[in-house]
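Replying to the earlier thread about multi-chain prediction with a worked example.

Input:
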Amino acid sequence: MAEQTLYEARGISKSYGSVVALEGVSLAVHAGEIVGLVGDNGAGKSTLVKVLSGAHAPDSGTLLLDGTERTWRSPHDALSAGIETLYQDSGLCPDLTVSGNVFLGRERLRRGLLGRLGFLDNAAMEREARENLEQAGIGFAGVRRTVNQFSGGQRQAVAIGRAVSWARKVIILDEPTNHLGARQSAEVLHVMERARERGLGVVFISHTLPHVLQVTDRVVVLRLGRVVADRPTSTFTPDSLLKVITGLEQAEPAA
Amino acid sequence: MTTASTSTRADVVAAISAPTGAPPGPDASPDRRTRLTAVLLRQDVVLLGVLVAMVLFFTALNPLFFSTSALANVLQDWAPIMLLGIGQTYVIVTAGIDLSVGSTLGLSGVSAALVIRSMTQSGTSPAMAIVTGVAVALAVGLAMGLLNALLVVRVRLVPFVATLATMGIGAGLTLVVTNGVQIAGGPREVITIGSTRFLSVLTAPLLVVLLVLAVAWVVLGMTRFGRWTYAIGSNSFAARGAGIGVSRHLVKVYALSGVLAALAGLFVYFRLGSGSPTSGQGLELPAIAAAVIGGTSLFGGSGRMSGTVLGALITTAVLSGLILIGVAPYWQQVVVGALIAAAVGLQQVSAVRARNGAGHG
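Result:
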């Protein structure tokens, strides 16, 4: 890879009691790259996501952001370092507007005395939300409408748009195309491509192998807590990827 | 930053806006705003219509209902329900409920009465005694609110159970400190403050209620505090994920409800000139009625203060009207309960219709 390594996990191990979830797992994502993370249920994908997003601390191993070793005490640490994570169940408030959701927890206040009293600057938030979502490739999503007026796919697009617009370095998407129709999935994949164009590092966790093969640059396969393959996407066929995931074919050691 | 090629963006725009049937493009927003305003207006217009219909109905049966003195009485009955309804709106918007407000009203009212009576009896000036009594009552309300918050946030009881428990505690404590008897014999300044009218219908306590209402209305609708209240009720998991201090915020909301209940207790105390141990009994019912009739969803995340104001007016009008047309007071709780059932039932029906109407996703 010619690009600079943006975010890297080296030799991550994590156990829950006697259950070993991850054993010496390494994963790197470069700027402007989409890395697919796949594996069967129980392979350790969710645990790795939690470690990468700062929700869980690893038992051993190191995390490097821009080549510097980092420790996350909470997801908030990772967020402020520019790493956004979108978990499986989209974290939107359905009763709030799109712009309210984009700015949730990061509300813009009015200037001066009113701002000090906590008055919201809704106009500024709507304007910026529209710009940010357009930049993320969501186009116009009606920033003044409440999220419960949107379909599942549209909500997911908004959730991803929010994460992408705040991510300064890395965005981790856990099953973002789950339960979505073909067209809606295409939207989501498009948003990921836009994030790549903007130079973000994208980690894409999915069970839907065609999506993974369509959009990623590299695929990392986990099986029983270990990395069993880490190769450019072009070296996989749908069939061979499935075999590596299930262990029917012995893959060569991680490159 | 790169900009999207026109064709791909158009695709996405089409995909995103197609199912809603709205024309895409940035120009669609003013149209949407007016539509939203129209919907909100419609809800309040419906409530206003119900209110007017009730006034006409009761006036037809008893012309006294539409008189200045009746209006003054209705406002006096409305004020404590309004105060409890404000707190209830905040709490219900967070997807909680506060059943303890009636008990808190009673406990803080008699606390003020006891403090003010004993201080004046031992020679303190009435003004000093009243100020102290008001402070004590507000502190009692705050304590009850914080107890609710403790049970909900720390002990993790569901709000219904937590506030059911404190409702019992508050009602019991009210009887303990009063021995179940009326606390009369305070300084006559109390009743003077509570009943001196100006502009035919206003009193000083009523002005305080209107001021509190205005502040609570603005805070819920226009500030970050209000936004977080909606966010927590809409999806507390998402709110926490977005870095909002959910527990901290819930503590403030339950404390607010307690303090507002204490204010309502003070209102009743100044109106009667004495502390009644039973004054708060059953008042959680009209408070909840005011909020849900006004359109606040018991599932949390939605509700408007304008709705609660109208809901409180409707509830009060029904209660006063029934008395004026000679219905036995025993029927009051029956009617308020039925109003709650009707309001929540209507919400459910329209929610189902809205879901079916969406027809996708």
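Residues 1-30 of chain B have pLDDT under 50 and may be disordered.

Feel free to reuse this layout for your own posts.
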